[in-house]
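> tool_call: predict_assembly(chains=two)
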Amino acid sequence: MVLEKDKLYFAPLSEIHRVRKNSCLAADTLAQILRINILYMIKRAGSGHIGTSFSAVDIMLWLWLYEMKKPNTGAPDSDVFFSSKGHDVPALYAVLTALEKLPFDSIHQLRQLGGLPGHPDIHTPYIAANTGSLGMGISKAKGMAIANRLNNDMGRIFVLTGDGELQEGQFWESLQGAASQKLGNIIVIVDHNKIQSDTWVEKTSSLGNIAKKIETFGWSVLEIDGHNFFTIAEALGTCLVDKDKPKMIIANTIKGKGVSFMEEVAKDGLYKFHSGAPSDDDYYCALEELTQKTNILLEMVGMKPLELESVDKPAPKTSSPHRAENLIKAYGNELARIGGQREDVVVLDADLVKDCGLLEFKKEFPNRFVECGIAEQDMVSIAGGLALRGKLPIVNSFGCFLSTRPNEQIYNNASEKTKIIYAGHLAGLLPASPGHSHQSVRDISALGSIPGLTMIQPCDEIETRLALNWAIYENPKSTYIRLVTIPVELNFTLPVGYTLTKGQGVKVQGNAKDKKSVAIVAYGPVMLREAVKAAQDVQADVFNFPWLNRINPRWIREILGQYDLVVVIDDHYKLLGLGNIIATVFGIGPVSYNNSSPKMLLLGLEEIPACGQNDEVLKYHKLDAESITTKIREVQGS
Amino acid sequence: MVLEKDKLYFAPLSEIHRVRKNSCLAADTLAQILRINILYMIKRAGSGHIGTSFSAVDIMLWLWLYEMKKPNTGAPDSDVFFSSKGHDVPALYAVLTALEKLPFDSIHQLRQLGGLPGHPDIHTPYIAANTGSLGMGISKAKGMAIANRLNNDMGRIFVLTGDGELQEGQFWESLQGAASQKLGNIIVIVDHNKIQSDTWVEKTSSLGNIAKKIETFGWSVLEIDGHNFFTIAEALGTCLVDKDKPKMIIANTIKGKGVSFMEEVAKDGLYKFHSGAPSDDDYYCALEELTQKTNILLEMVGMKPLELESVDKPAPKTSSPHRAENLIKAYGNELARIGGQREDVVVLDADLVKDCGLLEFKKEFPNRFVECGIAEQDMVSIAGGLALRGKLPIVNSFGCFLSTRPNEQIYNNASEKTKIIYAGHLAGLLPASPGHSHQSVRDISALGSIPGLTMIQPCDEIETRLALNWAIYENPKSTYIRLVTIPVELNFTLPVGYTLTKGQGVKVQGNAKDKKSVAIVAYGPVMLREAVKAAQDVQADVFNFPWLNRINPRWIREILGQYDLVVVIDDHYKLLGLGNIIATVFGIGPVSYNNSSPKMLLLGLEEIPACGQNDEVLKYHKLDAESITTKIREVQGS
């Protein structure tokens, strides 16, 4: 079959049926076909986790095809399966669509609004738990097992975990209680593919002898080849012997299994296929290999080759990446530059060295780069210890994790009044395709009230550099820098010579007529871009306000107080975001301040954010320019 | 020596000097004397952790007396000591005052404003880290060890941990990295007294074979008798052999060691001397035993008996406890009552069964009571799993921990849109004596923006019952109930027949004259009591507003909008508390709403709260009635 380079290919349901009918080859062949569909879904979606989906799909297929009773139906005595790591969900979707538990056509809708979310969500049929925030799986399974015991329900709970995930404290926290409470209906399978987000688990934060460790927590442990259906079946059989002990099967797997070049860590030590869509070349090359492997298996039993169906390849996104602002790159460059000036700077990472732009610093100052693994609590308290001994720690992770998992640890550090810089990457509503576990839209609220912690969010590369320099050189206390990760093509520029002034905004667009009617206040590249677009329609002035929890009330009153209407757009929940803080000023006037406050319109998220493509999700939450315009007109017209 | 029952006794510095001069008996005898001073400090302060101070004091004494070089001076190559559990700090203060590192007179000022904080704080001399939030110690030590390595500093870091503390995930999260980064200068000593807050560790959440576990994480492990100075000395010597491996010494100790009746778990299975001051009887009885033991040791070397000094016993607090409202008791009773009606209710606890008022429910419904140990993340995700299987979990811990340690887990549960009730006990500024690790003044901010999670705080026993019933029977979504733990004598009552109406307050005191001048809005018993006191001076009306993150804007406008001045008192940080949410309403009027908003005055905490006695801390933060009056007059007069 000749692959056309303007098409994407998937194995249709009819082909899956054909293979399933021949029981001799069902699992082995089906597993290859599912990989073709996983590859398709992720390539089409533009992002997703291939490596882990390929390492986990054999185990998932076996569980759903042969092992589980009434899987995930919620019926009495039904077995439950979920993946604690969650980013392998394309593999689960491939299984569920192949078994027609999900409509087959949903494979065309991965990471689209109303389609299949980027991480598991229980509002999709047959998904048993929301995951994607690592380390929670066994605890959730314990809750299910306790509920089953109370209900005299014999259902078992199968939990798939990653191995990098074992670096999370909650994993270990959850073990002992399962054993002492004799929750023997829990069967955990570790997808031990030995590579985490960036590189080898061993190099990131070695796990030592996992089996030996887990046994000391009172679990029954087995180690198997996770790509061999015979050993998978045998292990699941063996598992049932000891009714009282929770079980853990350590499945040795290969990340990227099935496509030779996806099974390797690159020469630079980084693994390239953890997340993100493969390039066109990689896609067709992988597809060819998988098709070939399938066809060999089919040929062995005298069946004709696989017939794939195709769809047109989606048009590439319109924005020109070379003109887009890349804040993470600017942050990483500046960090490395400052690293040369400041010997006290120590950079900490939790297995996101690439995503947080830390490669340059790590290369230049390896001694001052601390890789903590997926262990955010540990990382933040390590930073606390470093600061107590005179270092300036710069702590990195995705904002969704950094602001929440080590929330108490950040507060504890703040109580010591040392200086620490936290960088929360992947901030805000976009990208919307990974889903709510990764959309950091709660960090102002989660951390904003901590005394001595100033939160700041830059809107472009220049302001990113300014923010980092301000945090390092000017702010005597701690700073949380909130960084949007997606490159954004901007429709505004900061004034020449712009510098940061704490608690004050800066006008980036002036459209207001003589009578100053509307001011739109926003922060970060995404919402400012939308604000500027909207402002042209409603003759508004637009202010960039990078201070998320610090305002200068005088500036607010004097500058924003002049407008009839002040609109604040939060790239965050509306409740307890910047809007609440700014709006408060107009309720708190000194006597000298006359009371003719502007009307205010606060915009922001009001529900758990949707998963989907960026444009459609912005629109869904009414935070795109058009919706903003409409809202402003409503308020003006009312 | 005859003990007078209106005096409290301590061993003065002169006696400590006398004993230290005789090197034959220094450590053994000194340890008894330190226990006398620990007992004194805690009895005088009215609260503190005796059991753990007695189990840890021998180890601390040895380290500070003989083992550490330049201890906690911060000088090059100085050794560092801190306790990760932190509540054993009276023992450390006893050591530091005896060694004159701290002014001896500070033993009279435990848990007083400007005195010695209830948990360690680095702003006290020779305190190396802020602790009291469990499980962070090894991570902090890692940061210090990495800093030392970067500085070519040979200083060692000694960390004391509890054993109950080993239930925290962060403890395990921190282990592996220490081993793989070869942080051999870290020496952890586990105060393995086998009793945690409520009862035996084994019964709460068994730790299994700790030594074996820790070894699998690549640490060097030793097990010793933690009350035998020879084995302590020997272990510390042995420790130095392997330079690359972090070390853990599991010190078998006895909680309450030194006073026979404090060394036992009571017949009801609960340990009585974890926290809180001993009764008068217990105090004098313990003092007698300790003095006797000391005198026997002194006599053995021909020295005269110990001469204690005394101070007058502080007068008992004026408030009559029988008239005080006890919200925790009301909550516990109501929970047990509802437990009989609702079979789906499952109560979860993290080793605070007494403090959270759960004994009654546990006794009545043992199958539906899940003791999770000190493992808040695990507990919250277990609740998530229970809810997914149709149960109604009610999750309990102190608010300071519950709102922060499992912050991401609570959000993850919210994303599943299941119904869960969280009860955050020990909420608010008071009690102020345990210090900032335990003062929960950040929970509105930390959790308030989560969609589907309504936060409510009752002000008396009646409203506590109403709140629990509302959460269980009326609210279809999740609720966080914020509960003040200290009994408070109230100066107001709720109207007869009062019921909760979401987003609305209720007037509890009407002082305003014809012209409605001032409204004070507060929640919870402590701040409402202060508000009512203040209101009498400034002719204000007082509203109880139990909804912490849900307001009915119409009610706010119609009722509060009538006043010239609206004062909101947050038992929380001012930033991102209820004040911000209410004040926002006056900035956001629909067109029909006329713009003559009231002036607003927001009161609340603006810095990390101080440690001290309740009255002095309220005053320090200007949240006592007098300060509130003054502020209101300032705003009115200005």
